[in-house]
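FAQ: What does the model actually see?

It sees only this:
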Amino acid sequence: MFGLEGYEIQLIPAHDGGRNVVYTCEKEGVDAKILRIAFLPDRSREDFLGEVEYIRYLFEHGGSVSNVISSRNENLLEEITHNNHTFFVCLFEKAKGKMLVENNYRYREGAPISEYYYNCGKVLGKLHQISKGYTPVHRRYSFFDKFNAEYIDKLIPTSLSLLKEKLVELLKTLEGLDRSQESFGMIHFDYNDGNYSIDFDTGQITVYDFDNSCFGWYMYDLAGLWTHGVGWIQFEPDASKRRKFMDEYFGTVLAGYRSETEIDDSMLDKLPLFIKVCIMENIVDAFEVMQNTGEEPECDEELSYLIKCLEDDIPYQGFFHEIYSCEEPFQYEERNI
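And it is asked to produce this:
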């Protein structure tokens, strides 16, 4: 289907919460490719078409993404049925460079780390700017299709009644927010250094893993960048130094972002609200993974920490609050549920 004869095809080891079987495909003299096989039954053909059509649109409009490669049948998505099980297969260009973690979180030689922060914002800003003109053929789900009171009630254990209340409150607040074309559209919904590669010669970032992409607020992806920025300073014991760093870090991210697209100050003021939304997404994802793997629901120290932040209305993921410990970052006493 994809003309991969003669390629060396190797399985990429699975990671926690991963949804797909993924292979690298390499052959002398041609660019490497990534083959992805989706096998879980919780997404439809339309969901996958919505994702790959969006990626192709971003690529064709100058977005720095791993392009999806058409099959020999000129399809972005191929469907295979084997033993009454349906598999959805797509092929992507392999992004140039490597992930930060593969470089031991060292940035490129001779360049300040601020260049990286700026580029993170700039690449995201470009994707959002392109999204503002995007009209889907196959539509991906919208934020409230998944995050709603009914789903929260079904997913979260009954013993966490205060958490449920706080999540429903948060959803009510979000329902009142602006959803105009300038603030709400297709977003990555998982934009972090695990989902892009960096060319360490040029600093260029190439984004992939759009399988969580959906219609949501652009501010969500920016808040996600804020929450992932804490890793650079998480072992600093002085909260005021952590705050100063985060202000400077996010200021640089925003400068990069605004070099490509506009965002209203009234949305930026809602950064603490959207950090809460990121926490909600993490909590929901944790319980979904337990449900999908058939495990009994439990709260480890990290999940307990996130729940505590929401239950007690502790802003900024507790990063400047006494709940936070630089010896055990983002951990709290395990909850019995």
